[in-house]
C-alpha cells in the first residue's frame, strides 16, 4: 500500500472536480506538465468514475478518488483504477474497505478524538478538513503535540498564498486543494493556465523543502 509520501512526493495533491470525463486526459497532461504525477478525482460529479479510468491509463500517474463516504464507493473507484481514497470524514467501514482492497485511505479528521480513532484503525496520515475554517496550521501544530507520529493533509480553503505556510510544517505530509484545476479553465479548455497554476505551486513547494 502506498504512503502519502509516495503518492505526493512533491507534497501537493490537486483535488479535481471534473464535469466531463473527456477532459481527464488533457487535465492529466497539464498536471504532469506543471510537475505533478498525482490527482484526487472527487466523486461529486457523474464524470468522476470515467475520469478516474481515463487518468489511470497512464501507469506512472497516481490517480485517487476523493469525497468517498461509503464502502460501496471504495469498490467502484478501485475497480476504475484509483490507487488511493480520500474521505471528508472518518468512517471505519471506508477505512476497512480500503484495507481489504489494498489501497491507501486518507480519512478526514479535525478533532483529537477523530485522530485517535483513525490511529486505532491503523491510519497515521489523515486529511485535516476543512483546514482553514478549523484553525489551519495552528490547529495542526496543536494536534501534533499529542500525536507526533501522525501527519496531516490539510485541505479546504487553501490557495497559493497560504500553501507555503502549511508546507513549512513537518506535520504536513501534503496539501490538497481545488485551486489548481479551476472549473472555468477546464470548461474553456485552458489547460495552459492549469499547467501554470501547478508550476507556481511547485515553486512554492520547492522553496519550502
Ligand atoms: C476537498 O474536497 O478536499 C475540498 O473541497 C477542497 O477544498 P478547496 O475547494 O477549498 O480547495
> Under the CATH scheme, which class?
Alpha Beta
Mean pLDDT: 98
Largest sheet, described in full? 6 strands, parallel
Structural class: alpha/beta
Poorly predicted runs of 5 or more residues: none
Rounded to an integer in angstroms, the radius of gyration calculated over CA atoms is 16 Å
Task: Give the CATH topology.
Answer: TIM Barrel
H/E topology pattern: HEHEHEHEHEEHEHEHEHH
- Give the total of beta strands: 9
| Sheet with most strands: strand arrangement | 5-4-3-2-1-9
What would your notes on this structure say?
The protein has a single domain, classed as Alpha-Beta Barrel (TIM Barrel), CATH 3.20.20. Helices cover 44% and strands 16% of the residues. The protein contains 10 helices and 9 strands. The chain has helices at residues 4-7, 24-34, 48-55, 71-80, 92-101, 112-120, 136-144, 160-167, 183-187, 191-208; strands spanning 12-16, 38-42, 62-66, 84-86, 104-106, 108-109, 125-128, 151-154, 175-177. The strands form 2 sheets. Strands 5-4-3-2-1-9 form a 6-stranded parallel β-sheet. The chain has a 3-stranded parallel β-sheet with strand order 6-7-8. Strand 2 (38-42), helix 3 and strand 3 (62-66) form a beta-alpha-beta unit. The protein is globular and about 45 Å long. The mean pLDDT is 98. 3-phosphoglyceric acid (3PG) binds next to strand 9.
